[in-house]
Amino acid sequence: MINNAPVIASPNFGLQTLLAPMAPPLKGLTGPEPSEIEPSEIDPSGLEPSAIGLPSLGLHSPEPQVNPGSKSPGAANPAKKEPTANRPDLRPTILVLRPNSGISGDMLVTGLARLANLTQDDLDDLLVKLNLESLKGRVRLVQKSHNSIQGSKLELDLPPEHEHRHLAQVRQFFGAAKLTPKALDLVLKAFTLLAEAEGAVHGIDPEEVHFHEVGALDSLIDMGLAAMIYDILDPDRFVCGPLPLCDGVINAAHGLMPSPAPAVAYLLKGVLVKGLESQGETVTPTAISLLKALGAEFGSWPEMTLEREALVYGGRILPGAPNGALFAWGRTHCGVELN
């Protein structure tokens, strides 16, 4: 997170405390196995997204009205195929992030959760899958207003904990969780990228890196939830705007550091950035490692039909900056018609 306050030490709350009994995993989001029916024999316009392997996020069109005596919307009609542009559920999906004043791990979780329409029960279920059942109800999406503009924020009410973890311990934590293979790959890729960056900065092997702030419980939650919710959304494309950077001082476990932090600067190679007339940290290590692990492209708005948006705030307000990050979900304006 952007908040640089030190974590309070508690010797009684370590990794083993986190490994609480797990509830059964959430229901799968993918559809049934493909059938032997040729695609040309099916009119997909009558199918629910789950029937063709897409997550149901409330983004599909309402079911068409059928006149008495007419064919069912899902009836086979090989002689006539409806244009793809009229079947929005079949067009490729696009996730957009515009980080106006910066981005942090908790902001990523908030934006993704809002786009996926997750409830508190959904968040609690995901915590259970991370073996953090004792934290149910303590990770919440709340409303926050800045300059009379309403947005969302992630609120954490966590027990005091101060544990420095190596990459091996991070692998152990997430390896014991009930994550899908894709979500597990994403979160471990993010931590590995960060370990490589920290190793390069400190001149040590990535396996020897001690994660300080990033190894704390709140960062494990941010990274884990972001990977899991991204897997639920499963966009075809992820486009992020230029990351804003400004000068300033960051108070971290290693002491005072310039903004951007050295590990962040290392990970920013190849990323589109822009200057911001403000002071302080605008891109956190968790955020940049997640953006790269999720395969984000960096550039301008793509051409798309916008279906959902969410304004998200972080833990700090930057002076003289348009605060917040805008998340958007949509679909390409036109697509390739199914064969």
Would you give an account of this structure?
The chain has 339 residues and is of the alpha/beta class. It has one domain (92-332). It is built from 8 helices and 11 strands. The strands form 4 sheets. It has a 5-stranded mixed beta sheet with strand order 9-4-1-11-10. Strands 2-3 form a two-stranded antiparallel ribbon. Strands 5-8 form a two-stranded parallel sheet. A hairpin with a 2-residue loop joins strand 6 (249-252) and strand 7 (255-258). Helix 2 (105-115) packs parallel to helix 6 (217-233) and helix 2 crosses helix 8 (285-293). The longest helix has 22 residues, at 181-202. It is globular and about 50 Å long. The relative contact order is 0.21. The model is unreliable at 1-85 (pLDDT under 50).
Summarize the structure.
The chain has helices at residues 15-18, 105-115, 120-129, 167-175, 181-202, 217-233, 262-267, 285-293, and strands at residues 93-98, 139-146, 149-156, 237-240, 243-245, 249-252, 255-258, 273-275, 297-298, 304-312, 325-332. The chain is an alpha/beta fold and 339 residues long.
Keywords:
8 helices, 339 residues, five-stranded mixed sheet, alpha/beta, disordered N terminus
Strand order of the largest sheet: 9-4-1-11-10
User: Radius of gyration over alpha carbons?
Assistant: 22 Å
The secondary-structure class comes to: alpha/beta
Q: What is the residue-averaged pLDDT?
A: 78
Write the H/E string, N to C: HEHHEEHHHEEEEHEHEEE
Ends apart, CA distance between termini:
46 Å
**Overall number of structural domains:** 1
Low-pLDDT sequence parts: 1-85
Number of strands: 11
**Strand-residue proportion:** 15-25%
Number of helices: 8
The biggest sheet, with number of strands, parallel, antiparallel or mixed sense and barrel status, is: 5 strands, mixed
Query: Helicity, in percent?
Result: 25-40%
What is the general shape?
Answer: globular
